Amino acid sequence: MTVRVSLLLRLALGAALAAFAGAGAGAQTPGQDEMNVVDQPGYQPTPEEEQLTGAYEKQEVFFRTTEAPGTIIIDTKGRFLYLVQGNNRALRYGIGVGRDGFTWSGLQKIARKQEWPDWRPPPEMIERQPYLPRFMAGGPGNPLGARAMYLGGTVYRIHGTNQPDTIGHAVSSGCFRLVNDDVIDLYDRVPVGTKVIIRQAVAL
Amino acid sequence: MIARRGGALALICLISGFVAGCGENPSPTPAIVAPAISPDQLVGKWGFAAYHKDEDRARTIKEAAAQCNRPYVIAKGATGGVMMNLADQKELSELFLKAGPNGQTYLGPAGAAGPDDRIVSNVDANSFTTIWVDPDNASRYGTSVYVRCGKR
Fold it and tell me: What is the ipTM score, two decimals?
């Protein structure tokens, strides 16, 4: 596997940021919504492709926590996002997470919400795919999908995707992605100010 | 200008239809006329943005103008074309302006108008618009707008 110099630089920068962050968000990189080489900007999945099955399908599950109902807890290792319901229950959504070197943990709040967010490919992606527009207006086919919820003052988001097959995988630069139906469902359930806890793993 | 050309071609087609039947058998074969714009009009550094819905066009043009910190650079080709990327191709290709069907201006590889081309429109000194001929590419990438970095 070829290790890109830019990735090394990002990791070095991320390590420096993590050392100085001290605010709980131990981000390893100031990543944006970069995706890997199989990204398909403009691709519009079929309804069948967007229908998740098995563990990653949205479902109510047993979930023991002291966090208040309405809190979002992200389990990076398990590739799940939990929305606490109370009474030891939570809604669980399958997600895609940051790839190796781009995972992080911390405590944030939803600072802003956006329907059909615009997308600006990060410089590394433009370098790999120079034919991409530097800005793509929000809409079907946009890699950020139908909704975005911005996490505090970071560059990270919980957002939709036009690549449902990436759910359950480590593919992003630190953002968390859901299929569009799920991100719309979550978006409608949580207000700005919602507490978001990002963990490497969650003990049920 | 392109619209006027289209109208003129339609009139020519209507008249010639009595002779050659062009109304009965519409063909994608490009008309043998010079393209409406020259390669020099495309050469330069451009802010590059895209949209899918017409209501996003105005703000996408503004966003394109804001992307000059990472411009899309179009250089002259060795044989009279311009150097640009084809869809999903990292390497540059020399592309040529050509007269497409219905009076449209196409931009693509040497030869007749084809699916690897894009349709060029709304050309002025400081901007132009393209959309891929191939329906899949057009669906994926939408309508692209290029706004010149540093006005002429």
Answer: 0.77
The per-residue pLDDT for A153 is 92
Residue B120, pLDDT above cutoff 70: yes
Q: Which residue did the predictor score with more confidence, B120 or A102?
A: B120
Phi/psi at B144 (5° precision) = -100, 140
* Domains of chain A with CATH codes: 31-36+54-199 (2.40.440.10)
Of B60, B72, B90, the CB nearest to A137: B60
Q: How far apart are CA A115 and CA B21, in angstroms?
A: 51
∠ CA B134-B135-B140, nearest 5°, is 100
Q: With contacts defined as CB-CB under 8 Å, which chain A residues touch B95?
A: none
Mutate to test the interface with A, among B89, B137, B140 (most CBs of A within 10 A): B140
Residue B40 is predicted with a pLDDT of: 94
- How far separated are the first and last CA of chain A, in Å rounded? 36
Q: What is the mean pLDDT of chain A?
A: 81
Contacts of B88 in chain A (CB under 8 A): 129, 131
Among the options A146, A175, A183, A190, which is catalytic? A175
CB pairs under 8 A between A and B: 70
What is the pLDDT confidence band of residue A13, given thresholds at 50, 70 and 90?
very low
The 3-class SS string of A130-180 reads CCCCCCECCCCCCCCCCEEEEECCCCCEEECCCCHHHCCCEEECCCEECCH
Sign of CA dihedral A2, A119, A170, A140: negative
Q: Which helix (H) or strand (E) holds A14?
A: helix A5-21
- Asked if pLDDT for residue A75 goes beyond 90, the answer is yes
Q: What is the pLDDT of residue A3?
A: 27
Q: Are B100 and B113 spatial neighbours (Cβ–Cβ below 8 Å)?
A: yes
